[in-house]
Write a structure and sequence with these properties.
Ribosome_mat_SBDS_N_sf, Arc Repressor Mutant, subunit A, 9 helices, about 230 residues, Hypothetical 12.0 Kda Protein In Nam8-gar1 Intergenic Region, Chain: A, alpha+beta, Alpha-Beta Plaits, four-stranded antiparallel sheet, Sdo1/SBDS-like
């Protein structure tokens, strides 16, 4: 639980009523991040109190809370304030959250998109350069998936790009196949698999197009260079 002196104010106004809570700035930001981890309300509150004016220490009336929230439970009320209200984040927090979201969007595009002219992934740096050239703006409170679509629309005039799944055939020596299963599932879905008479394992894996190179490198690592991979056209 954050110290009251280090807490920031989260506000919510509705039907002429004003409510405030004191929260941990970092945990409040994480709570509101649609791509973040779950944060317990109890952990981010400095005090389990609902205020009308936190600076004056004026508490909200039970009548007002019942009218707006239909409860006087501070945890339930705080959840609504955080979800629907305004959190006074610092400029540095906002800048860092925007940068974090920007990095997540670029990484997702580079992992899942391909150059349709070559069928190969774009390097992450090329995606980043296009995003910078297109002056894409990132919102820390909008999900990665939503902003991926916005970024793709902005950079398509600059580079040939689209999201596409590919099928990759892989052959592994029997000594490596068992340990490779979890790694393979990290990249995509095994569509077909078969054990060969020589003890080797072959499979067809469907995955986002941008993962082809990483997949080949991982299979080579697991098999000490004995893996064979080929993208199926």
């Amino acid at each position: 639980m954050v110290n009251v002196d280090e807490a920031i104010i989260a506000k919510y106004e509705y039907c002429g009523e004003h409510f405030e809570i004191l929260v941990d700035p970092d945990l409040a930001a994480e709570f509101r991040n649609p791509d973040g981890q779950d944060v317990a309300i109890e952990d981010l509150l400095a005090v389990e109190e609902i205020f009308k004016d936190s600076k004056k220490g004026d508490k909200a009336s039970e009548e007002a809370m019942l009218k707006i929230f239909e409860t006087t439970d501070p945890i339930g009320v705080s959840k609504v304030i955080l979800e629907k209200g305004h959190v006074q984040l610092t400029a540095e927090q906002k800048r860092q959250m925007q940068e974090d979201k920007r990095r997540l969007v670029i990484n997702k595009i580079s992992r899942e998109a391909i150059n349709p002219q070559s069928g190969l992934p774009h390097p992450a740096q090329r995606i980043e350069n296009a995003v910078n050239e297109a002056k894409v703006k990132f919102d820390p409170f909008v999900s990665v998936d939503q902003q991926v679509q916005t970024a793709l629309k902005a950079i398509k005039p600059l580079i040939p790009i689209r999201f596409e799944k590919v099928k990759v055939a892989v052959r592994l020596p029997g000594s490596s196949a068992g340990g490779a299963y979890s790694a393979i599932h990290h990249f995509g879905e095994i569509l077909n698999e078969e054990w060969q008479q020589d003890g080797s394992w072959i499979g067809i894996v469907e995955m986002p197009g941008g993962l082809q190179d990483d997949f080949a490198a991982k299979m080579a690592e697991i098999s000490s260079g004995e893996a064979e991979t080929k993208t199926i056209k």
